[in-house]
Amino acid sequence: QVQLVESGGGLVQAGGSLRLSCAASGRTLSNFGMGWFRQAPGKEREFVGHISGSGSGTYYADSVKGRFTISRDNAKNMMYLQMNSLKAEDTAVYYCAARTWAGGFGSSNYEYWGQGTQVTVSS
């Protein structure tokens, strides 16, 4: 079992930055690929980005590429999402997720989920 807890959400003006954190406990984080997802009101949960267990590989949705950066610190069992140049359309609840197998980036491919943290970008 892995427990995930997100933090760092809040209200920010368009063009600003936020850094989300995901703290993991229960198992060695380096065994897990990890991802960030988000869900806006009335919309389906969507993939934001993924980082491999070692941190050597990162993948991003086109909508955030060049603005968001995922990183991880396996020694601290932490994952991060640095969000720059935020837009109103980035407003959503952001979730971190973890998985033990490789595959596509659909939400069904992730076994463990945090409770989410709200990010609101004012225009």
Q: Explain this structure to me?
A:
- The protein has 123 residues and is mostly beta strands.
- The chain has strands spanning 3-7, 10-13, 18-25, 33-39, 46-51, 58-60, 68-73, 78-83, 92-99, 112-113, 117-122.
- The radius of gyration is 13 Å and the shape is globular.
Identify the notable features of this structure and list them briefly.
123 residues, mainly beta, seven-stranded mixed beta sheet, four-stranded antiparallel beta sheet
How would you summarize what this structure contains?
By secondary structure, the protein is mainly β. It is built from no helices and eleven strands. The strands form two sheets. Strands 2, 4, 5, 6, 9, 10 and 11 form a seven-stranded mixed sheet that branches.
Q: Main sheet, how many strands, which sense, barrel?
A: 7 strands, mixed
Which sequence of SSEs, written as H and E, runs from N to C?
EEEEEEEEEEE
Helix/strand/pairing class, anyone?
Answer: mainly beta
Instruction: Report the principal-axis shape.
Output: globular
pLDDT under 50 segments (min length 5)? none
Percent helix range = under 10%
Estimate the mean pLDDT confidence.
95
**Radius of gyration using CA atoms only:** 13 Å
Question: What's the total count of β strands?
Answer: 11
What's the N-to-C terminus distance? 40 Å
The percent range for strand residues is: over 45%
What count of helical segments does DSSP give?
0
